Amino acid sequence: MPSSGPFQRLPPLVVALALGLVAVEALLQLGAHGLIGGPQAAGWRIEAMTRFGFSAPLFDYMVETRRPTTEALTRFVTYPAVHSGAMHAIFGAVLLLALGKAVAERFSQVATAGILLAGSIAGALAYGLSLDSRVLLVGAYPGVYGLIGAFSWWLFTASDSAARGRIAAFRLIGVLAGLQLLFRLLVGGGDEWVAHLAGFATGFALAPLLAPDGGARLRRWRDRARQR
Questions:
Q1: Which CATH number do you get for residue 73?
Q2: How many domains does the chain have?
Q3: Is the model's pTM score more than 0.90?
Q4: Which DSSP symbol is given to 136?
């Protein structure tokens, strides 16, 4: 008889992505503690952040010169794999598993991957366009906030109880915002919230296009609004 444990129900794509985040962090931790890589491994995290983190100055230079480079463009999709520390990575992986499962069960694994990717790219764009910061953007959070946006839209347009759906949507946003604030208080943070907000907005905007019943949900929501 197949197991019915919670890990058996996690979408394979979400599990693979979360394991990838954990694997990268594990390598950096092993290197930092001198267990692999020799003395130079102590600087692996800084090197990884420098090579793969999203750089606003590099983005600005690309825009000003109108010369897109492979290095600058690949950072839009590589920065989510690197985190600033163990707590940063673990918290991101846990949120990815929880929100990835919730979204994949209601949309599809392909749609979930698309929302993650779009949220990450939109977050980097917002970070580069709105800030003049030399702090590298790293971490899976903009993509995760894209999942939060998509799931919030699904709750907001729930047909069984519109009021309860809206309350649940905003409660979810409040809980995640509170957790993010707690994390920032514990380990510090900067202007990453700009990328997170852009990721959330992107996920919310893409949800009706990617949901199997997105059109029907929008029509129900429109009908409810007209009845008021």
A1: 1.20.1540.10
A2: 1
A3: no
A4: P
